[in-house]
Amino acid sequence: MKLRFLGKNSTPGDSPTLYASDQDSYVVQGWKVLANDLLMRLDVPDGHTVVEVPTELFEHLSKDGLPAGEIKTYEPPIMLVTEQGTCIVQGPQMHDPEALSQMRIPDYETCVEVPKSSITALLEESGGADHQRPA
Fold first, then answer.
1. How far apart are CA 130 and CA 62, in angstroms?
2. Are the beta carbons of 5 and 17 closer than 8 angstroms?
3. Residues 72/55, Cβ–Cβ less than 8 Å
4. Strand, helix or coil at 117?
5. What is the pLDDT of residues 16-41, one digit of tens each?
6. pTM score
7. To which H or E segment does residue 100 belong?
8. Do 87 and 11 meet the contact criterion of CB atoms below 8 Å apart?
9. Phi/psi zone of residue 7: left (φ > 0), alpha (ψ -120 to 50 degrees), beta?
10. CB within 8 A of 18, min separation 6: which ones?
11. Tens-digit pLDDT profile for residues 69-120
């Protein structure tokens, strides 16, 4: 799998990053979610994991030809929005050696792969109630 870097939201020691893949998916690199109170609220299937990223990370979607990267609807693969305003994103954990070789992932981070269609759907206004689910 080949990745194309879209952007990152970095501060010293933190590096959530967003990539577009050649597999019609996005790879979201973020902080490992280890908090039991968050994990207990989620149904994480085998082979999947969750990462925490700032909501601003999705602004980099505009570099993939999307008109804006502002999340309008909070639903899977975004499972929760924390009190700090970060997103908990769930998806299959990345194991592709070619993709991983293109990334720098600190020990306290990991990455998930999510279909482009599931992310782009979050950019559209929902006709229903606000789906934001604070953690």
1. 23
2. yes
3. no
4. helix
5. 999 999 999 999 999 999 888 888 88
6. 0.87
7. helix 97-101
8. no
9. left
10. 6, 7, 8, 26, 27, 28, 29, 57, 58, 60, 61
11. 778 888 899 998 888 889 999 999 999 999 999 998 999 999 999 999 998 8
